[in-house]
Design a protein that fits this description.
It is built from 2 helices and 22 strands. By secondary structure, it is mainly beta. The strands form 2 sheets. Strands 1, 2, 3, 4, 5, 6, 7, 8, 9, 10, 11 and 12 form a 12-stranded antiparallel beta sheet that branches. Strand 18 (286-292) and strand 19 form a beta hairpin. The longest helix is centred in the first third of the chain and has 14 residues, at 26-39. It is globular, with a radius of gyration of 19 Å.
C-alpha cells in the first residue's frame, strides 16, 4: 500500500475533493466525474487521463516474497501530479522488507505511461503488467525480471459492487480510491539488488493500488497471503474517511480462502456490508482489531508490529517521505461463524503493515452506522 498523510480541505476545494471553482472549472469537474464513473469497473487500470488540472496520484503496490521468504520486496510504480502550476513526477519506490532500506526514484512525468483498462504500467526503463515485471532502477541497484506464472486473482468486480470499495467505488468525489488487483499469484525469476541475487522461483506475489487526491488522516493497513493454510489471503484497512465537511471511520476487510468444493470463498467485512468494528486497540508493538458482520460472523485480527522502512506518501502538493511500513509483521487471524464454529484460525507471516497518522482520532471515531 502507498502510505499517506493528513487530509486538509484546501482553499478552492469543495468537501476537500478538488472540485471547487479555483481547482477546476465546472465543466472539468463534470467531465472528471463522468470518466470516474466509466472507469470504476476497471480498478486495476490508470485513472489519471481525465483529471484535468486537479492534483492527483496513482500507484500500484507490487509485493514479491521468495519461496523461502528470505527475499521480500515491495515495488511501487506510480505518478504524482501537483495540479495547476504544481510539480509533476513519475516514480518507482522500492522497500527491502528484510533490511528496511527504501529507495524513491523519480522520472519526468512524460516517462510514465499506463493502460486505463488493465494493469500495464511503464516508468522509464521499468515495466509492470499482468504477466510480470521488468525493472532497471540504478538508484536502488535493482534490476531483472519476475514473471507471474499464475493468473492474477482480483477482488470481484460487479456493477453493484465494483471491487474492494463496494458501492463507494461509484462515488465520484472520494478523496482516495483503493483497488485489490490480486490476492495472490505465483512467481518465477530473479532480481539483483545492490549486487545480491534474489531468486523468486516458486515465490508468492500480491498486488493492490490506490489513486485519488491524498491519503487519509489516519489509518491502519495490513496484508498477508503467507498462512499455513494454502490459498488463504487477507487484506484489511481502517481509516478516517472525509465525507462532506465531516468524516467517519470506514473499513474494508477481505479474507480469501479455498472452499471444500474446490472454488474460492471471499469473506467481506466492510462499512458498506453493514459490518461494525467492535474493538480496535494498538500500542507500540501490537494492533488488535475485532469486527462483527451483520450475519453475526466475527473476525479477530492481532498484528505484531516490527520495524520497517520509510515510503513516500501523497499529499496535495508533493510526495512526503514520512510513513513507515514493514514486510516482516505477523497477523493472527480468527474467523468465527455465526453459530460459534471456528472457520479459520491461522497466522500470516511476511505480512505488510502500516499504522500511520492521527491514530487517536481514528480510535475515537465511530463508523457511519
Amino acid at each position: 500500500m502507498l502510505s499517506g498523510p493528513a487530509w486538509h480541505a484546501a482553499p478552492g476545494y469543495i468537501d476537500g475533493m478538488g472540485l471547487g471553482q479555483a481547482g477546476a472549472s465546472a465543466k472539468q469537474a463534470l467531465t472528471r466525474a463522468a470518466h470516474t464513473l466509466a472507469a470504476t469497473r476497471h480498478p486495476d487500470g490508470y485513472h489519471g487521463d481525465y483529471q484535468g488540472d486537479a492534483g492527483f496520484f496513482e500507484g500500484w503496490y507490487v509485493k514479491l516474497v521468495s519461496a523461502d521468504r528470505s527475499a521480500r520486496l515491495a515495488i511501487i510504480p506510480g505518478i504524482f501530479r501537483g495540479g495547476a502550476g504544481g510539480h509533476d513526477e513519475a516514480f518507482v519506490q522500492v522497500l527491502d522488507g528484510m533490511t528496511g532500506e527504501s529507495w524513491y526514484e523519480t522520472e519526468p512525468a512524460s516517462a510514465f505511461w499506463a493502460n486505463s483498462r488493465r494493469f500495464d504500467v511503464t516508468v522509464g526503463a521499468s515495466r509492470f503488467g499482468e504477466d510480470g515485471i521488468e525493472v532497471d532502477l540504478p538508484g536502488a541497484g535493482l534490476r531483472g525480471a519476475v514473471r507471474f506464472t499464475t493468473a492474477l486473482d482480483p477482488w470481484p468486480v460487479t456493477w453493484r459492487s465494483p471491487g474492494i470499495m463496494g458501492p463507494y467505488g461509484w462515488v465520484p468525489v472520494m478523496e482516495c480510491y483503493h483497488g485489490l488487483v490480486s490476492f495472490g499469484h505465483d512467481l518465477a525469476g530473479t532480481l539483483t539488488l545492490g549486487g545480491r541475487e534474489l531468486n523468486f522461483d516458486g515465490g508468492r506475489g500480491y498486488l493492490e493500488k490506490d489513486w485519488g487526491r491524498a491519503f487519509p488522516q489516519g489509518y491502519v493497513w495490513m496484508q498477508s497471503n503467507h498462512f499455513s493454510h494454502p490459498g488463504v489471503s487477507l487484506s484489511a484497512s481502517i481509516a478516517t474517511i472525509p465525507w462532506g465537511r465531516t468524516s467517519f471511520r470506514g473499513f474494508i476487510v477481505g479474507v480469501r480462502r479455498p472452499h471444500p468444493d474446490g472454488g474460492q470463498v471471499l469473506h467481506r467485512f466492510a462499512t458498506y456490508t453493514g459490518a461494525r468494528t467492535t474493538a480496535l486497540e494498538m500500542d507500540d508493538a501490537h494492533v488488535a482489531w475485532e469486527m462483527c458482520a451483520r450475519s453475526g460472523a466475527v473476525l479477530r485480527l492481532q498484528a505484531e508490529r516490527r520495524r520497517g522502512g520509510l515510503l513516500h506518501a501523497p499529499v496535495r502538493t508533493q510526495m512526503h517521505r514520512r510513513v513507515e511500513e514493514t514486510l516482516d509483521a505477523r497477523i493472527h487471524l480468527e474467523l468465527i461463524a455465526p453459530d460459534g464454529r471456528v472457520v479459520l484460525d491461522d497466522v500470516g507471516e511476511a505480512a505488510g503493515l502500516e499504522v500511520h497518522g492521527d491514530l487517536e482520532a481514528l480510535l475515537a471515531m465511530s463508523g457511519r452506522r
